[in-house]
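Table 4 source record.
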Amino acid sequence: MAAQRKSAQQVAAREKARAKAQELTEGHERLIDLAAEFFEQEQQAEQIRAEAQERADAILAKAEQDAEAAAKEAGAKVQQMLDTGERRAAVAARLGLSTAQMKRALDGAGTSSPAEAGRTEPALAATADDVAEQVAAETKAA
């Protein structure tokens, strides 16, 4: 059998090199696809966490509002008990509250004593201009 010509050897070597390069390229493409899928899943995980945090924050905010409303109602009940003429100490003893707890309950209801229940406090001014307007309004009213 005759020896292959040099050009035939070169063609065979190039074909082998092309086949190997094709294998490597396909492998790299598969790795690129897997990496892209990985980043998509990572992004989806972050989005899920962010949405869950938003829902949790909304639930906690609603719970805090509900708790504040319940505390205000509890304070209103304490005030109603005091409005019957019962002494503060007796109401505190009946409810098992210390004087500090009793004051917090009444403060939560918006009043701290029957005498103060009908009195309204002026709103605090936010700026110097607001202070000037508030002073002018109080002076005019007096």
